[in-house]
Specification:
50% of the residues lie in helices and 8% in strands. By secondary structure, the protein is α/β, with parallel strands linked by helices. It has a single domain, classed as Protein tyrosine phosphatase superfamily (Protein-Tyrosine Phosphatase, Chain A, Alpha-Beta Complex).
Length: 256
């Protein structure tokens, strides 16, 4: 994995640049334009300065629910355009992180939730809206950052869509998805130990740990939904209803 893409901020976790990834045609993504992260809810002064000055952050897309946003609103550099684009209109334990969800000890199968995000009409419409906001942004004004709470699930699926639109193969998409574990592993293990002590239930502790990790079987569940369309391109244009011209213009402007 190319650790150079990890953006090391003080108080914004799991931040990285899609730049430097290569498409199947050999061209690479321009750096400093496409950023993904966990929720920027308590950035340091230095974080805000880095995002504004170093990365020229122009627009942020928040993929969280109303509840998550209400509990922990984004804190952004002055002048940043904020867009609230929830993937879910309601709460789903394990993907969303409202207080009520965190208290719920009945955590569902994440594979089912990934498949749901990729097959439910409202989720597909919301994913498409987020992706097209990224694709049609004027990058002359600066970069775009998208996030959910952990920067793993909803953020991961939007990233997958963007990477498919840029013509990346499955290995590249998978590698970027799994990079979350480079920064979240220690935190996930800490939550595992904490839950094990508080509940005495190893199965519950393991499920809580997995909320903070990217797992291949989760991504595979999403990719199965993509494959039902026959190809990545068909999923983009038929499943997400993204115009071919939008994809072409985005690819031409972002790859070098």
């Amino acid at each position: 994995m190319n650790n150079d893409r990890i953006i090391r901020l003080e108080r914004i976790r799991n931040c990285r640049d899609i730049g430097m990834l290569a498409g199947k045609d050999g061209r690479t993504v321009r750096s400093g334009r496409l950023l993904r992260s966990a929720a920027p809810v308590s950035p340091s002064v230095k974080d805000l300065a880095d995002l504004k000055d170093r990365y020229r952050l122009a627009k942020v897309i928040d993929l969280r629910t109303d509840g998550e946003k209400g509990e922990n609103p984004d804190v952004l550099p002055d002048g940043t355009v904020y867009i609230h684009n929830p993937v879910f209109a309601d709460m789903h334990a394990g993907v969303t992180h409202e207080e009520e969800t965190r208290r719920n000890h009945s955590l569902p199968d994440m594979r089912i939730l990934y498949r749901m995000m990729m097959t439910r009409k409202d989720c597909l419409a919301n994913l498409s809206k987020a992706a097209q906001t990224i694709m049609t942004h004027d990058y002359g004004t600066g970069s775009v950052l998208w996030h959910c709470t952990e920067g793993k699930d909803r953020c991961g699926l939007v990233s997958m869509i963007i990477e498919m639109a840029l013509g990346m193969d499955r290995d590249t998409v998978r590698e970027d998805y799994l990079m979350t574990n480079l920064v979240n592993r220690a935190r996930a293990e800490a939550y595992y130990r904490q839950t094990l002590v508080s509940t005495g239930r190893e199965e519950m502790a393991a499920a809580v740990r997995d909320l903070f990790l990217a797992k291949e079987e989760y991504l595979d569940a999403a990719l199965e939904a993509v494959d039902s369309y026959g190809s990545d391109e068909a999923f983009l244009t038929e499943g997400l209803q993204i115009p071919e011209e939008v994809i072409k213009n985005f690819r031409d402007s972002m790859l070098e």
